[in-house]
Amino acid sequence: MLLIVVYTSWPAEILELHLPGTFERESWQLSHEEKAASIPSLQAKGNDLFSKGDISAAKATYFEALGRIEQLALREQPGSAEAIALENQKTPLLLNYALCLMKESELHEALIHLNSALTADPSNNTNKTQFKNKSSI
Fold first, then answer.
1. Considering only CA atoms, which of 42, 62, 45 is closest in space to residue 102?
2. Where exactly are the structural domains of the chain?
3. Which phi and psi (to 5°) does residue 131 adopt?
4. 32-135 fold
């Protein structure tokens, strides 16, 4: 049972009470397999939030997914099939995250992430096409 208490004055005030299994676990509480399985659902959630116009929440969701990919990548040998698969998952998330940053006028940070996505695989022109399509929305 998770109990969140704020000590503003005595007696303490209980703000929330979460029973086991009724709350979303944090990234550090997830196993390697759970993190990997959560990335597509986070991407879909971010896409849904973006299409509804909630750019800030979409940006946070894409950022969470990117963080999980980075955590998973630390366990993999560079150049291995698993590392390449993670990199392939990372590129569309970087493009989506950069688009959110552009929509919020955070252009410098957007360029950094966009450049990361486009230089990840220079032979893959679909990255540029995907971004142009998304930015034309």
1. 62
2. 32-135
3. -65, -40
4. 1.25.40
CA 27 to chain centre: 11
For the segment 11-65, what is each residue's pLDDT rounded down to a tens digit?
A: 666 677 767 666 676 766 677 787 888 889 999 999 999 999 999 999 999 999 9
- What is the Cα–Cα distance from 15 to 12, expressed in whole angstroms? 9
The neighbouring-strand residues paired with 5 are 14
SS3 78: coil
Amino acid found at 16: E
49-61 burial, b for 16+ CB within 10 Å, e for fewer? bbeeeebebbbeb
- For the chain, the 3-state helix, strand and coil shares in percent, each to the nearest 5, are 65, 10, 25
Number of other residues whose CB lies within 10 A of the CB of residue 46: 24
